[in-house]
Amino acid sequence: MTERTRLDRRRLLTAGLAAGGAALATRVVAGESDAAITEIQDWNRYLGDGVQARPYGKPSEFEAHVVRRDVEWLTASPESSVNFTPLHELDGIITPNGLCFERHHAGIAEIDPAQHRLMINGLVETPLVFTMADLMRFPRENRVYFLECAANTGMEWRGAQLNGCQYTHGMVHCVMYTGVPLKTLLQEAGLKPGGKWILPEGADASAMTRSIPIEKALDDCLVAFKMNGEALRPEQGYPLRLVVPGWEGNMWIKWLRRLEVGDEPWHQREETSKYTDLLPDGKARRFTWVMDVKSVITSPSPQAPVRHGRGPLVITGLAWSGNGTISRVDVSIDGGRNWKTARIDGPSLPKALHRFYLDIDWDGSELLLQSRAIDGAGFVQPTKEALRAVRGENSIYHNNGIQTWHVKADGMVENVEVS
Amino acid sequence: MTERTRLDRRRLLTAGLAAGGAALATRVVAGESDAAITEIQDWNRYLGDGVQARPYGKPSEFEAHVVRRDVEWLTASPESSVNFTPLHELDGIITPNGLCFERHHAGIAEIDPAQHRLMINGLVETPLVFTMADLMRFPRENRVYFLECAANTGMEWRGAQLNGCQYTHGMVHCVMYTGVPLKTLLQEAGLKPGGKWILPEGADASAMTRSIPIEKALDDCLVAFKMNGEALRPEQGYPLRLVVPGWEGNMWIKWLRRLEVGDEPWHQREETSKYTDLLPDGKARRFTWVMDVKSVITSPSPQAPVRHGRGPLVITGLAWSGNGTISRVDVSIDGGRNWKTARIDGPSLPKALHRFYLDIDWDGSELLLQSRAIDGAGFVQPTKEALRAVRGENSIYHNNGIQTWHVKADGMVENVEVS
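Above: the input entities. Below: the structure tokens describing the complete assembly.
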């Protein structure tokens, strides 16, 4: 990593601030030299658009900067690439469908649902093919889950690289899915005794596949057709995707067209040459499915600097774990020397994003912001140093290390590592 | 009401069906004369769009029918009108932002957030004016709430009128809000002892206002700036709206620009000539704020007929109450003679939509579908007959009566009343 981004914690020893409840916000007393109070605006004066103008709504034009973004040099082509969620602009735990990150291996399949089928074959009593209408006749479930790409934060194995949580952590989103339990469909086909693994396959041109053990398939997986109430978006697998709660995103096969049942894993491309973890001794860990406990501060962050100067400052971020709920999030403003317990606000749902806040009174000095999540199973988010000590420096996937943001006195924020 | 829509329950006495768990769905055995299985589709063969194509995503073109719709004859102009949520197409409890119903009194205000201010004045120690940036410095909360217009189902006071739950019940939606508790802002200004009511005011050309008692203002109201994670949509009050959980929608002032504190209600237009309930004796009930316990079956329904014939059928709908959570939903398939307890699936959050299902094996005979919700406070959704016996037939608002859908043998569905 570059010298530019490695900071000595001791350099910032003066950053010890009294974190406390929010005090007075900057405010203007009514009538006091604020033209916006007294000027009549067009929207106070004239009728706006009527209801026929927008059958399907969209954001205000003043929010045009809140979009998914890619990093062109990161991938060879836009069809096998990623568009990151603008986490720094969002709040709460629900990601709006239009901003859910997208990762494709052969571009976005545009499927006519009337022509789409889901086949179950292999070690089953009765091979089956379902139309979308067939699937709508099985009992459904609704669950809120995060989806994280195994490569999220992957660039950061080599040190602080990308300047913004959209790029360092934006391969995660969280929506409410509606679908049929995978267990229900497998039972409909009838598993043969030797059926120990399933292979979901996508209908896009990459025919994406992953091996999933039957225990997970019979546990909490869903064959989903809706997200946040409406049909899946094309880039999220319309009309059908597999939901594999808490496990790495590329197993959540999009455009799902087939489920094969077998007696052993298939060792496909995306679980051998990719999505495995190269260790210092040259061996690779495979089948590292669970997305471990992780968190990131989304504001302040490089794309969301502090523009208001000293005084009350809302520090907020996201925490999640493939093991279940988040039991606690700690936040440090001095690079990990001292920690305060953050306030988790909103629903705490298993394998879903959790939103946390620490409301402080900023004295205007430099900060080294970090968050550290602890999940319900007791796992504690590790430092990047601890991760590298075990996994070396050749990894790409499963980087759940503690992220550091350097907030400067002018409010600008930079991605750094502390040592 | 017309004779066409009034059905005698006894006519359909043969509709007594054994409601039970789902059995086999219609299905095709692999390879059995289904061209869609063997034909190679374009989306299997060619690369799709890359990630740069859609910075902000949108639904599949095959979902172009899933939109908000208005009823032209219902209102005088599109600027003072309503666009209904397509409840029959949705599932789960989250409404995607693009499909949340909209109701305006002077069209959609298109506000530049940099020019927007929120003023607190009246019986306060310090009158205050906040910029949007100021508001972002107070501690925030995230809550999922339904929002229902008081006039939802209002046409049905006169009998079955509109053929589709989008039109009969589509003035309700449910999202996760992020905002600052109203209590926090009022405390920042400092309430004077006489401050017993607040008057929120909108910045649109209608300058919408409603009187709200201070007890509610200090309880669970939010000054919200986000819905489902992103900024409020323009038609939902961007950049700021008041959230008044469980209370009628027109109190949730959009484009919120002012909060006045007073010692008594203001008796504004929208709480005297409108949004009051005319009773049989000629008197009108005022300040009927709470949206009472209510439910509706969203599928099957007139816009979502049964197309698959007899066999497994998913009956699903929504239930909600301004009093808190829903403790039970019963479903009848014979016009209210017999009831089965439905399965509530997904999070059960106070003052939020609840999703229910009854999975039956349909024998193909006619059904009279009804749902009846019971809330955590013990209130039971009434029949329309019981409502009319108390409130007469001149009401517009607060119709939470039990809805009946007539499912015919061919699967078509009609809005009816039973007697």
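Note for the figure: The radius of gyration of chain B is 23 Å.
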